[in-house]
Amino acid sequence: MEFSSVEIVSASPILALTVLALLVLLLETLLRKSEDVVFVVTLVGIAICIAFTLAVYSRSGTAFMGMLQVGGFTNFFYLVFLISAGLTVLISRSYLKSQEIEFGEYYCMVLFATVGMMLIAAAQDLIIIFLGIELMSISLYVLAGFMRKRVKSNESALKYFLLGAFATGFLLYGIALLYGVSGSTRFATLAEQFPSLTSDAFFWVGVGLLIVGLSFKAAAVPFHMWVPDVYEGAPTTISAFMSTGGKAAAFSAFLLVFFHALNVGNSKIAEVLAVLSAVTMIIGNVIAISQQNLKRMLAYSSIAHAGYMLAGLAAGNDLGQTGIMYYLAAYTFMNVGSFGVLSVLEQQEEKNLTFEDYSGLGYKRPFIAALMSVFMFSLSGIPPFAGFFGKYYVFAAAVKANLTWLAIVGVLTSAVSVYYYLRLVVFMYFRETESTMAQEISGSSLVAIVLCAIAVIGLGIMPSFVIDLAQGLF
Q: What angle do CA 293, 339, 442 make, to 5 degrees?
């Protein structure tokens, strides 16, 4: 097989990140105390990959015998993944030291997980989606259990691994059935044969199994049971990474499969996704109300946000696609910022992770409390923050697709979410406590959190910036 220089240049972001991950692995192997060097190399390498992504953003087409898509849609998600990884690395430095788990392989696993995410977004074949999901998942299994001396961390990794392997079986069997009825796993072939395949029962079974496998990765109900336990037990910085990069990868797969290959609009698939969306929004928000641990609250919040984005997917129109892409960009900054604040205030043995622990934070750490308030307001969908426009676009898409009932469910459940998001703000500013939260906050973590807050406000004031990047990419 021969590949042209044009293909290599077009695929340079994912190739460069793969080389970076291997370089970091080599440095970790050769250097005795590699943590500082690996941290700097990882950050610089991610910045270079972002530059490559921007340089080839306007290209379009396929590479490597049509297996990978390049430019446009793919590069939009590349940016989301790389920004999520870069922010995660920034907030991880001080957190790893404070939790006494500072090992160079942490950064290596983050990079390999990101390579897997990029493979998913670039896929033009179901087999590539499978390979990307497996590379991402295996790396995240390791990262979820990175606190090897903590029972909860080991438990979270084991649960994630067992349930993830089970979901992978559904996904792979679904791919096998689609191959059996169509003779191909290529998106182009599936799209071409879609009208004739709809009369085959095995086709619908295969589609159903694909929905199950991808819903697990997106944390949609009823495939969500792993989320709260894994987010609680995993290192806080990895919870941030899983809830943003991992979710964005799952929805990039949803968009590729159900928009590019299976024509979700005006089909039975849309009805299934609409029901899945409604149930996910309701259960995620209702159960989040009763949570006292902030990581579990954000975990159920993540489930609810998956439901909002599924509403855009069920709509099956251009506004739904664009809305999901905007939502994922905004959600990356909102959630990395939220978990970032938790990570800088968390102490050994999981202290400072409950609502009560944040009592009076507005007086003890006014700047950090203000940043956390920005993220809570945005997650609840209060204008003019980015979260409001994310929900607006997906609900508007649902209305446009004659799914008004789904948009109403979304608005009502979003109103419910205001309670548990603003509850934290009430604790920070209207409750008193004797605890001090005196630990130092590192410069790199503070920079990452401030950047997230600026992005949340900026994307809320100028949503057209992301919308213009996302439109016309299909």
A: 120
